[in-house]
Inverse folding.
């Protein structure tokens, strides 16, 4: 059965043969894949950051109230959840190229819809378009997995970090182009706050085009073909199937928990920061500066983080994430609201804590999943990440409206400490399993 499947794959895709049987070609494709991902993520980062910067402000302007300013982030993160599932399943079936390109194109369409909604002052179209726009966010996040398909276990965190650090260039530029894009939009008769979404539309469509045109051959399809060939050449029988890599449910749970919780804390505090700043006299340029620093901290340290995750361990960096997020929450809560420096520092720590959590959690997840289910599992976990962000965004506005930004920040910081017992539980279980295996041997 397995032989027939591999033979059929070989006939349909003869070009795969050069990669399946050549480690040198595989390494070349791994490096080329990273280069393509880097290029697409530069555009994808700009599309993501532009919308994050002014989404809440656009809703505040159109709806006329602060209590629902978390709705835009909630909607595009809900859209991100649905898109994460679809992109993951498309990638599992057709490869990363098809799944990621479709996600970015959808995000671009959503951004265009937001611009039209602002122009026509249509709340209904705004909400629908924000939901579709979320596909770009999900795809931007899932692109980090593409670099790991042909990476060894000691290269996985580095591969994730390469994808993420490249996002920095677009992600930092996006918020700092808010004024420029606002002026451009105004010159076209479009509300200034919709200007960044013009940038987002162009950036997402460019990111999708880069992947669709250049990500050939598809690294995930090659990796699956290599896995199938290896099984066949080893003449595995049904009684030997237990020796095949199986999904590690405990590892999947731990990796997912790390990423979901860090996403919740980061999104809750970040979503309300522009509103908090507006209430204390900071202008749109200052907001763009703060969000630019924040997003830079989310992505720029990735190369160092990836090295540390591979070198000193996934669990250690996950615990570092919890401590950093706690520090960010405390500083955001107690720092003077009129001090731009304090706000920047708090948001930099918030981004850094998220970076530690996402890269360590991603590495834990990839380690725990075989290729036969990897992309689908990754998509499902990213649904949880997106839903966590949607819940955080939706609750953040209500918490601030009924209490304060300081309370929101403190609660977020304390919640991040839940990462520590989760990681310790996982490490103890792993040690026990290893000891049991040694006894059996």
């Amino acid at each position: 059965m397995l032989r027939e499947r591999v033979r059929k794959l070989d006939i349909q895709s003869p070009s795969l043969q050069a990669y399946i049987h050549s480690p040198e070609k595989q390494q070349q494709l791994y490096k080329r894949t990273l280069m393509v991902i880097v290029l697409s993520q530069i555009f994808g980062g700009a599309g993501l950051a532009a919308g994050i910067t002014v989404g809440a402000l656009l809703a505040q302007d159109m709806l006329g109230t602060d209590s629902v300013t978390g709705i835009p982030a909630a909607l595009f993160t809900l859209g991100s959840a649905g898109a994460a599932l679809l992109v993951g399943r498309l990638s599992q079936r057709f490869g990363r190229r098809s799944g990621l390109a479709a996600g970015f194109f959808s995000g671009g369409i959503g951004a265009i819809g937001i611009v039209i909604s602002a122009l026509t002052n249509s709340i209904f179209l705004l909400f629908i378009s924000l939901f579709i726009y979320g596909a770009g966010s999900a795809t931007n996040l899932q692109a980090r997995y593409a670099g790991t398909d042909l990476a060894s276990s000691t290269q996985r965190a580095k591969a994730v970090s390469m994808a993420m650090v490249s996002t920095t260039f677009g992600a930092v530029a996006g918020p700092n182009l808010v004024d420029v894009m606002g002026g451009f939009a105004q010159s076209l008769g479009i509300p200034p706050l919709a200007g960044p979404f013009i940038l987002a539309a162009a950036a997402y469509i460019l990111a999708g085009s880069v992947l669709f045109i250049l990500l050939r051959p598809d690294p995930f399809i090659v990796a699956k073909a290599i896995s199938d060939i290896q099984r066949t050449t080893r003449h595995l029988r049904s009684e030997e199937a237990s020796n095949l890599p199986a999904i590690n449910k405990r590892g999947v749970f731990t990796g997912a928990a790390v990423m979901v919780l860090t996403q919740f804390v980061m999104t809750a505090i970040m979503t309300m920061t522009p509103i908090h700043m507006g209430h204390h006299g900071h202008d749109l340029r200052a907001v763009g500066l703060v969000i630019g620093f924040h997003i830079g901290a989310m992505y720029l340290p990735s190369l160092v983080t990836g090295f540390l995750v591979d070198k000193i361990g996934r669990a250690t960096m996950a615990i570092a994430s919890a401590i950093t997020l706690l520090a960010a929450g405390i500083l955001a809560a107690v720092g003077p609201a009129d001090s731009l420096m304090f706000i920047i520092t708090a948001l930099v720590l918030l981004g850094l804590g998220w970076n530690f959590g996402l890269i360590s959690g991603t590495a834990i997840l990839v380690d725990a999943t075989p290729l036969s289910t990897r992309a689908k599992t990754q998509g499902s976990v990213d649904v949880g990440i997106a839903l966590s962000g949607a819940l955080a965004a939706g609750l953040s506005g209500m918490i601030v409206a009924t209490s304060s930004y300081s309370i929101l920040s403190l609660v977020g910081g304390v919640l991040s400490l839940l990462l520590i017992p989760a990681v310790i539980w996982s490490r103890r279980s792993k040690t026990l399993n290893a000891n049991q295996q040694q006894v059996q041997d």
